[in-house]
Amino acid sequence: MSYPLVVLFDFRYDMKNIGITQRFISLWFVAFALLGTLGNVAGAVPEELRICSDPGNLPFSNQQLQGFENKIADLIASEMGMRAAHYWWPAQRGMVRSFLNTGRCDVLIGVPTGYDRVTFTKPYYRTSYVIAYDQTRDFSIDSLDDDILKTLKIGVHVNTPPHGALARRGIMGNQVKAYPLFFDSQYSVEDYPGRVVEELLAKKIDVAIIWGPIAGYFVKKHAAPLAMIPLEGIENRIPFTFKISMGVRKRENELKAKLEAALQRKQPEIQQVLEDYGVPLLPLN
């Protein structure tokens, strides 16, 4: 998962109120495909660590294994003496109910810590929504309460914490361009998560307030001169920052413990992967 998409991660953290969907995984209505072979041959092939993955949700995962969750899955599987086998299913289409809980896969790489539909590991990174804007413009922004926001065109994913926060400040209507939170890479290519950043770079909007891992990835991809201001704290009982864990089926405590041990040992490498993808990281404690 990983959007509290937003999360961003369906990155929904309570999950109706926040719109952080377990996309911090992703969205497709397609038949699942299998990467890797089923079954082992007398020890010749390492045991599979079966990863529940969205097939088209960069920067988190895709079928070409280009996402940072794909890379982290490989690190953890290798540390456990296994190999990562990705089982594809769109996150917004009931990833936990239809895929994880039915035994088609065993591990979600990115879920908000505290997500009550799974047994979650200790968190392995923490990030937030961010305010992104062009540093070459003649304004600066430090928070959602800056008056300048009332004069600018703002892009935001619909039904996310920043979307609600803007509405509570009277910033709504034509001043706000709301982008779809859910993305189907087969049927709605134009709604890919990075579209809001690319429209910011094209000056179609003045500011983007979106999930940090999405902003950071597309900013880095385009080598863009954008400022990214993290949103921290809680507003109306809804947080802007989230700790991210791995998730397994309820009561799968043995697998959880093995994942936590591997996460602890591979934390430096995981940190490097996240930094390579431009994920804005906050202290875990």
UniProtKB/TrEMBL annotation:
Top-rank lineage group of the source organism: Bacteria
Name listed for the protein in its UniProt record: Solute-binding protein family 3/N-terminal domain-containing protein
Residue ranges occupied by any Solute-binding protein family 3/N-terminal domain in the UniProt entry: 48-276
NCBIfam families: ABC_peri_MoxJ_2
Species name: Entotheonella factor
Gene3D superfamilies in the record: Periplasmic binding protein-like II
Signal peptide annotation: none
Sorted UniProt keywords: Signal
Entry keyword Signal: yes
InterPro entries cross-referenced by the UniProt entry: Quinoprotein_dehydrogenase (IPR022448), Solute-binding_3/MltF_N (IPR001638)
Coiled-coil segments on the chain, per record: none
